[in-house]
TrEMBL record:
Native source organism of the sequence: Microbacterium salsuginis
Cited Pfam families: Aminotran_1_2
Gene3D superfamilies per UniProt: Type I PLP-dependent aspartate aminotransferase-like (Major domain)
Domain of life: Bacteria
Name of the featured protein: Aminotransferase class I/II-fold pyridoxal phosphate-dependent enzyme
Aminotransferase class I/classII large domain ranges (all copies): 51-379
GO terms of molecular function: transaminase activity
SUPFAM superfamilies: PLP-dependent transferases (SSF53383)
Keywords noted in UniProt: Aminotransferase, Transferase
């Protein structure tokens, strides 16, 4: 075999995603396609985004486009924004600018793990955790969420922890379910992790995956475990809140509650590891734009309107759908319990939604609310027709 065993494992664990992505990309030229799958934009970018980037394109010094690590102005803007948002005293040195949340997660893994360490991941959860872990010689260990509420199952997490566990990954607001976890949940999880760390004689870290942190509905509060469990690092991406996933910009943040000696050691390693993992810093123009981008967000009122339209129509049709508290996804149980069959029937009508098989949940499906309202209205008659037909078959 030409490729390494870790490459083969990574490829195998993400094949279902790449195969689905290739299928969707093949439809890109069809103007009649109603693509409600990935969180891609279907409208022009926010004017504030293009203005912020355009303002930084004209060079202001000879080294404007030179090599960039984490730019101080970007770190300062992030630290100030995080401090105000989470009520914690972040400092610029706690922030490493990265190529989106992908880069931040990769940096966290390089910072905290050794080969063959175990990392606990939520199921259902983001479909790239597992292949990323395989690619860097780590062992993913699944911990199922509560199958009804999709809350964290603390017993499942405790049962997944072994002497080899180094990191537990949590995601709130959660993809694909839209759940936002309360501060009480983080306190309970902190107790689990503290007990396990003491039992096994090795610190277990928490990686809080927060790219949807600023996309929440109905005034739902957000709490980060970084305020509760000191040994927490946060990854973040601007691509969600700005709906610009092709412009890679994010960061890894160290909790200010990390004990001083460990915090200084981690700070000192951020820049060298950013270089070592392949110069994982964002491009110059994106970093220069951070102070302006920190205050921008997609239209949450319009996103709420789309959520309510789809959620109301699907639940009125008798589907079991989780009402998202955050993210821009709708997560539901397929009529008849077969998500692939449901999605295939919709595809025959030119409507594409994501089967839960990508999340190891074959009975569920996910719809992206980044589609336009016109797309949603055009897709709804097809959704309702297929739902009615499949419910009739099931009866």
């Amino acid at each position: 075999m030409a490729i390494s065993s870790r490459a083969a494992q990574a490829k195998s664990s993400v094949d279902v995603v790449t195969t689905f992505l290739a299928r969707i990309r093949a439809l890109a030229d069809d103007p009649g396609t109603l693509d409600l799958t990935f969180g891609n934009p279907h409208e022009m970018a926010l004017p504030g985004f293009t203005a912020a980037v355009r303002a930084q394109v004209e060079p202001q010094s000879v080294d404007w486009f030179g090599y960039k690590a984490s730019e101080r102005t970007a770190q300062e803007a992030v630290a100030a924004g995080l401090s105000a948002e989470l009520g914690l005293p972040f400092e610029p040195e706690d922030i490493a600018m990265t190529q989106g949340a992908f880069g931040a997660i990769l940096l966290a893994l390089a910072l905290l793990t050794d080969a063959a360490d175990e990392v606990v991941i939520p199921v259902p959860g983001w479909f790239c955790y597992e292949p990323m872990l395989h690619a860097v010689n780590l062992v993913p260990v699944r911990a199922a969420l509560n199958p009804v509420t999709f809350d964290l199952d603390l017993d499942a997490i405790a049962g997944a922890i072994t002497p080899h566990t180094r990191i537990v990954i949590v995601n709130s607001p959660a993809n694909p379910t839209g759940r936002v976890y309360a501060k009480e949940t983080w306190h309970a999880l902190a107790d689990v992790l503290e007990r396990a760390s003491q039992t096994h004689g090795r610190r277990i870290w928490l990686l809080s995956d927060e790219p949807y942190r600023r996309i929440r509905f109905d005034g739902v509060d957000f709490a980060s475990p970084a305020a509760v469990y000191p040994w927490t690092v946060i990854d973040y991406s601007y691509g969600k809140v700005l709906l610009t996933p092709g412009q890679r910009l994010g960061y890894l943040a160290l909790s200010p509650l990390i004990p001083t000696e460990e915090r200084e050691e981690l700070r000192d390693a951020l820049m060298p590891l950013g270089l070592a993992i392949g110069w994982g810093f964002p491009d110059a123009v994106m970093q220069y734009s951070v102070p302006a981008l920190e205050v921008l967000t997609i239209d949450l009122a319009e996103l709420t309107r789309k959520r309510d339209r789809l959620y109301g129509a699907l639940t009125d049709a008798g589907l079991e759908v989780t009402r998202p508290e955050g993210t821009f996804y709708l997560w539901g149980r397929a009529p008849g319990g077969d998500a692939v069959a449901f999605c295939d029937e919709l595809a025959e009508r030119g409507v594409y939604v994501m089967p839960g098989t990508l999340f190891d949940q074959p009975q569920h499906f996910r719809i992206s609310l980044t589609a336009t309202m016109d797309m949603i209205e055009a897709a709804l008659p097809h959704l309702l027709d297929v739902i009615a037909a499949r419910r009739g078959e099931a009866a």
